[in-house]
Amino acid sequence: MTATAQRITQITLLVLGVLLSLMAVFLFLGCVKGDRQIDKNKATAVAEVSSADRLRASAGFFTPDGKFHNPQVGLLYPTRLSVGQRIAVDYDAANPDGLVRPTGRNWTLAIVPCLSVIVGSWLIIGLAMVAVAETGKRRREQTPEPAGQPA
């Protein structure tokens, strides 16, 4: 690996690390923003979970005006929910088809996943950078210098 190729690879890895870190930070900030939006005009209802898997859940509920709502984006913080389960949900009363979360859950649940993405990404990128540096160093040591050039 030439020094130029090594440098380009290292810069690419650094850019990837920064992008992954920024994505995790923006994900976290989105959770905080969504919770603030719900808290500004919070209403609570009992909802029935209509679909649930590890990463997504949706639930339908009636608002005090008797209208049924089933937000298309699903529930925020959907872990440990099962189909048919009846749960209390908080929602933005001004937009019941918008952001909805199970009562008692908030942005603090996003801290560990976001930090895990950042730390895990930088660990992998750090290992890859060390591997690139070692590969480049070994290749340069194995390549004889051209004759007539000082060492």
Chart the SSEs and their pairings.
Layout: H1 3-40, E1 42-52, E2 57-62, E3 68-69, E4 86-92, E5 100-102, H2 111-142
Antiparallel strand pairs: 1-2, 1-4, 2-3, 4-5
Q: Could you explain how this protein is built, in words?
A:
A hairpin with a 4-residue loop joins strand 1 and strand 2 (57-62). The longest helix has 38 residues, at 3-40. The chain starts with a helix and ends in a 9-residue tail after the last helix. The chain is of the alpha+beta class. It is 46% helix and 19% strand. The chain has a five-stranded antiparallel beta sheet with strand order 3-2-1-4-5, with helices on one face. The protein has helices spanning 3-40, 111-142, and strands spanning 42-52, 57-62, 68-69, 86-92, 100-102.
